[in-house]
Amino acid sequence: MSDVVLHGGLILLILSLAVMTVVTRDTFAAITAFVVYGMLLGLAWVALGSIDVALTEAALGSGITGALLLRAAVCLRDKEAAAEVRRPGRAAHRVSGLVCAAIAAGLAAMVLMLPDPAPSLAPAVMESLPATQVKNPVTGVLLAFRAWDTFLETVVLVLALVAVWGMTPDALWGGRPGELRQHAHDGPLVFLARVLPPVGVMLGIYLFWIGADEPGGKFQGGTILAAMWMLTLLAGLTDAPPVSRRWLRAAMVAGPATFLLAGLSGVVFASGLFAYPPGFAKPVILLIEAASTVSIGVTLCLLAIGPPSRPANR
Amino acid sequence: MNTTEWFGIAAALLIGLGLYGILTQPMLLRKIVSFNVLGSGVFLMFGVIARRGAAAGLTGDPVPHAFVITGIVVAFSASALAVTMALKLHEDTGESAFPEGEDATAPDNPDEDKA
Asked: Can you tell me the ipTM of this complex?
């Protein structure tokens, strides 16, 4: 009974915030609604029994995506105020509404007609999990059973950053991303940026470390590290490094490179590509996760603050 | 009907809402936000399917969970790239939406080509 009230209320809140995100005229209001929507969606993931996804959704899907969208909204604000963009007419709205309602109704019907009993790979995962020596089944799937997918995903992050940097004007290549912020000596943001990072960095490392056995892992840990770096950048306590720095690029590719080397060594020491030597699976997985946590933290923060926007010497 | 199915219907509605935003919002940034709503609806549907596959002492099938974690990270990368492209378009042409109507293919600003 309490499930019905809690879950029903959560779903109503999520749907109302999604409506607000999509239809509100004011962009800032829409993005604020989107951030709250993402947080509540994290709760929905808890209700659906996945703490791993809930952490990722709250930290990355809501938090860092929100920061990225707000930065863009600030850059576009003047334009939006100056010129009223041409909106589609009423007829176009009605047709779009009908099409989208039909698609939603079709998907809802499909959800209600899913096969029963549901197909599941959970027994197969639990059967093979002891061989990986990790206890968190999601980490087992990400780092062992479907390691190739996860490797390609870490490469996608780096490629996305290369594409973002590719939009740098020639004159600013090798410069620093983000705005130069005046270092304010007091104020709540500076206070927060001094007090929170030590705790946040510990939490990020803890989430990576615990991820082998409990909910957590490199994505959740790396996202928190990225958020801490962004906080010190926003408060003006640190400045973003020029994108041409070698250590920065090494940090970006450390995760994918370690992952690839570990995968290739499987050809020599184990049964094939991305196979881990029996008995050494957990140390190899922890090594990959450690390097990936650093790379994910650096890459996510750099993706959120955008391409270089000022010369390196300022 | 149990509450897991309610989340499934909510996921379907979120996908419809996100698509509606992509089609009707003229500003590119709003299209990106709507695209994220659509994406989170797809992820939530994965969550419902994972929940229905709960077995072997787990609260859900870990394989779709792993897919969704991968998906959230890729969705963020795509959003970051899309936002950068929207800002670049604004910087170069002053536009924050796609041009519409018959003159959509004609260059608004002939000086742009010389730059």
From this structure: 0.90
